[in-house]
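Appendix B. Extra example for self-study. Work through it before the problem class; the solution is given directly after the inputs so you can check yourself.
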Amino acid sequence: MTAISFVLAGVGGQGTILASDVLAAVGLAAGHDVKKSEVHGMAQRGGSVTTYVRWADTVYSPLIGPGEADFMLSFEKLEALRYVDLVRPGGTVLVNNYAISPLSVSSGNDSYPLDERIKAVLGAVTEHVFLVPATALAEGLGNVRVNNVVLLGALSYFLSDVPVNAWVQALRERVPARFAELNERAFLLGRDQMSGKA
Amino acid sequence: MKRFLSGNEAVAWGAWESGVLVAAAYPGTPSTEILETLAPMPNVYAEWSPNEKVALDVAIGAAYAGSRAMAVMKHVGLNVAADSFFYAAMTGMEAGLVIVNADDPFMHSSQNEQDNRRYCKFARVPCLEPTDSQDAHDLVGVALNISEQFDTPVMLRLTTRLSHSSSVVDLEGVRPAPRTEKPTYRIDTTKYVMVPGNARRRHPIVEERLAKIREFAEIFSYNRPELRKLSLGIVSSGVAYQYAREVFPEASILRLGMTYPVPVRMIRDFAARVDRLIVIEELDPFLEEEIRLLGIPVEGKTIFPLCGELDQSIVRESAIRAGLLPASAQTPAVHPDKGELPPRPPILCPGCPHRGVLHVANKLGLVINGDIGCYTLAFLPPLGALHSCGCMGASIGVAHGVAKAGVTQRNVAVLGDSTFFHTGLPALLNVAYNHSNTITIILDNRTTAMTGHQQNPGTGRTLQNAETTPAELEPLVRALGIRRVHTVDSYDLKAVESALKNCLEVDEPAVIISRRECALMPEARKRWVPLRVNADRCNGCGLCFRVGCPAVVRSDQIDSKTGKAKARIDSQLCTGCEVCAQVCARKAILFRAQLAEEEGVE
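Solution. Structure tokens for the complete assembly:
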């Protein structure tokens, strides 16, 4: 297979780690060698969080350098901007259309980038930029926390070789049983968002 | 069976399968998950010790007693445990001892990026370095075998990317059958009592041991030359090996699983076969220096950076600059002009009990000598309430020194409960004994929060979840000789301020125990109630923003008189700690009781 590299970005508490765990499990189930890398510790305190997942026949480095990510999944807009250099020209960027103000913004010392600028900067790297209302859709399902799974669903649309079942199975193994159905619905909702658009 | 494991999880499995009976550690990123993974496994004893030195002594004791043992720590933890590391290297043990040490290149969560392979050379201890989770798993057992074969402690050196990256591990999932009878403690005073006479006898033995291990390194299966094209030869170890493989798929690589002592003949042979020899290693030029000492021409840090961690793109770019790769090898990437992006650093959580205490101390104009823990994050604006932080337990000694030297301001030492138990205790004893007017604030949040809520001697639970006697801070600090001791609720700013003022009135040592459990503890979460701003009363003065809580944000409403944005509270984030409500001069932020009253009226 050709190697696929994913960078996931978000803010501490948004479910970035769970999403990368699912992505790693799906890669393994599809028969790839997989490596996943994350940074803990200070990142838990509302800081920006990135994780890397790589699929290939043999994966060497667990990290992703500038221009090496085929896909970026960002659970927050500003974080997409921060890490978009990692995306290869022509790669695919999926962004949750949702802003979380850093402290310097909420206290009025900085301003949050405007949507036009976000689109322009992301668009300078690749034309394949998709703003997905993942948080809004998750709220519609009654639980904002599944925004990460909505975005995973959107990503799954681009990985057509991987059967839907593999995703659902990986999700079920990682969420409490009482949330399994909710997560499945969130996943399918995100996947549906992409049909016709991508 | 195959499992997808982080390096840390893989080490825990390796330890369990190799029959480690006693494991001890102090939590520290990036090493914490090793003992958290091992602790629930059957038939193994694992503990959080109060600090890394105690942890290593515990592991050494178990190995003296004939059982396989493991001590785990982050790189700076070995500074704390260094004394023990050195005597263990002198005595050897009766059973295998592995010291799992996690370095932190790039300082993702550390104060420095020391390269602890230096310690191995310093103490004559073999150093093993895994390249992925499989290696991390396998090398625990290998380290214990080497330890027993040569009667030496062995270091297993991880780095952050090894610890926190996951890959597939093929493991046995079985553990050797436990011993049915207890071993007898073997008494051997010439070996284990390190008085000068005995130590003088041991030192030549240690040097002979090192020579034998050097020979062993030549046949050690994790040291292996991978011969491909011979124009370029790369010596590498650890995760840097992966970057070397990725960037130079056709180069010959000498992969070293043991980086101290190095296999001299293997290196000479490899160097003789290749046209150009380079070393790709993170942090210090450790292997590079070892090779250069052999008189072999080699390049390393003239090509690759000394500071920070490597990745394949840094290795690739460095190689292009050095002419090892053509410019066309560059990965195409776009670096769009983003302007200045608002930073998103780690911050004190909403409801953090440290916030109000540090705000008050800062308001009183005190110099705040801080320590390692969540409260370190208070140095950032807008709080700006921490003025020094060096290492675990340093706050109190530094504050004492500041007090003895004398400055115009008064100063306080600030540290957490776990950090106080770690190395704060002897420093506070010093404050009492040598008598300075140092005020020590112990932020007792009933857990080790920064590393993810580990138990400590004050919590009443052990790592393996057994109930135990919690250490009581008040009698403890009194017993050290501190007479002026206040206990306050961290959320009660008036109480904090009056305790501080009481201590400032006198010229004597004092301790304020500021107690409130971490707002993220499951029990505390149950009490969360989001507060609300009465927009009619708020005039946008901004006092509440100064406490630096992410839940207090600027609203879209502008006060007509001041022209400033009124405050709003994000109900998704607010825990209802009421620190902002106490700071508000216009009583515009409603307290819990006021909210409850309103609800009653409705």
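Self-check: The CA atoms of residues 6 and 25 of chain A lie 13 Å apart. If your reasoning did not lead you there, revisit section 3.
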